[in-house]
Amino acid sequence: MGARERSVAAVPLSVLAVLPLALAAQLYWHHGLPAPSAAATELAPPPPQPVLEVAAAGDRTSFAKVLMLRLQAFDNQPGISIPFRALDYGRVIAWLGAILRLDERASYPLLAAARLYGEVSEPAKQRMMLEFVHEEFLKDPNRRWPWMAHAVFVARHRLHDMPLALRYADALATHVTDPRVPSWVTQMSIFVRVDMGETEAAKVLLGGLLESGRVTDPAERRFLMRRLEELERAGGK
Amino acid sequence: MWRQTKTIAWFTALEARRGRLLRLMAATLLAAFLLSELAAAAAVTESNAIRLAFLAATLRVAAVFVLAAFIAGSIAREQADKGSEMVLSLPLPRHVYYLGKLAGFAVIAVVIVVLYALLLALHSPFTQALLWACSLLCELLIIVALTLLCSFTFAQVPAILSAVAAFYLLSRTMEAIRLMSRGPLVDTTEPSSRLIAAIVDGIAYVLPDLGRFTPTDWLIYQTGGIGELAGIAAQTAVYVALLIAAGLFDLYRRNF
């Protein structure tokens, strides 16, 4: 027993009696409560942008990261798991857009849109996500091209919608201007055209690309010239 | 004994007035009001719901924090000044001193709740604001009893406030933690997972279910009822009795 403590005998009997009784009452009360039940919470629309700006308390980047994690974890609410495709995609897109406006250099929202929410088995929702990626890509093409390139892949191989894949590939060819971006990105539209049977258009584009001097790597030039020759042979038959 | 308890309660409440606690509460009220108006002005739709949500959440947290800080500071100051030793040297049972302090702080909680309820009643139906206010009072009574217990146990303000904050957050999130301990990501065949779930359940048994207290839904969707409030009041009575008994047990064993 420490010097600052008296014996338990110093505690009045009434207090000694009430303490276990109150504890027993608490245990009994808790035992009588219904077991916690998991209920899926609907994804609410994001608050207006000015409210998010205030809530960020001056640190928009960190706040955007927290919001992104919260959105991404929305499929795993306490005690329940919700498939991505069950989410309201209009609201998911609104959140992704709001997060991008808080942190414009972030690639996480576009990655999530293209590779997480865009990979569900509902074509209508996939198309919504791809359109979102396309709209956001146009705002900063030289930074956001990877997600647009993935959108071409999803449109071509998952949705089997070649005109859509071509539209996205053309957007890459038209808007990406940074020389540091790999050249296959801007060449995607040529190969989509080949797949679509538009060999004449593909030949023109490929020939133009080789003449422009933008392809400097000798191996890459050889590969593209071989493809051009194949196209010309196919066109001559 | 009743008269002595009232006297101690009166002086405790008077300290709040002299310590300008009411001015601080008025300042938090103004800050919460301005924040909620800003949020409502920025909203495209449901502006009153957004206003109420901001107002209710801010006021609830502000009330808990300010009241706990005031109690912790008041008891710590009294112990540093040897004021409590002086009072306890009088022919006065320790429980009278303890209950007097508790009653004084409870009166301050009532004043805070009335101030807040008046503001909320401007934006929501009066009966729902009244139910919400009664629930907030129950929540604050638990915080008063807990902070008083911690104040005599820990004596140092940072330790007291940390303990109260941890208790409050844990009590408010316990339901979600319990669900997560058995959620779809948990392998319930693993003994470690079952042990963790059992520990979480055990902790939940000795905490009040604050997650059911003072829901903002009552103000926004008018879903509050006397049945829910009765359950909250019963939980408050049980838990405050437990905290008082624990506080008295500690106080009676203490050598000043």
Overview of the structural elements:
The complex is a heterodimer of chains A (237) and B (256). Chain A is an all-alpha fold and 237 residues long. Helix content of chain A is 67%, strand content 2%. Chain A has a two-stranded antiparallel sheet. Chain A starts with 12 loop residues before the first helix and ends with a helix. In chain B, helix 2 runs parallel beside helix 5, helix 3 runs antiparallel to helix 5 and helix 6 packs across helix 7. Chain B contains ten helices and no strands. Chain B has 256 residues and is an all-alpha fold. The interface between A and B is large, with 35 and 38 residues.
The number of strands of chain B is: 0
Mean pLDDT of chain B: 89
Shape of chain B: globular
Which stretches of chain B of 5+ consecutive residues score pLDDT under 50?
A: none
By secondary-structure content and strand pairing, the structural class of chain A works out as mainly alpha
> Radius of gyration of chain A in whole Å, from Cα?
30 Å
Total of helices of chain A:
11
Order of helices and strands of chain B: HHHHHHHHHH
Q: What's the assembly state of these chains?
A: heterodimer
Q: What is the arithmetic mean of pLDDT of chain A? A: 83
- Determine Rg of chain B (CA atoms, Å): 20 Å
Our measurement of the CA-to-CA distance between the termini of chain A, rounded to an integer number of angstroms, reads: 103 Å
Low-confidence stretches of chain A: none
How is this structure best summarized?
The complex is a heterodimer of chains A (237) and B (256). Helices cover 67% and strands 2% of the residues of chain A. Chain A is mainly alpha-helical and 237 residues long.
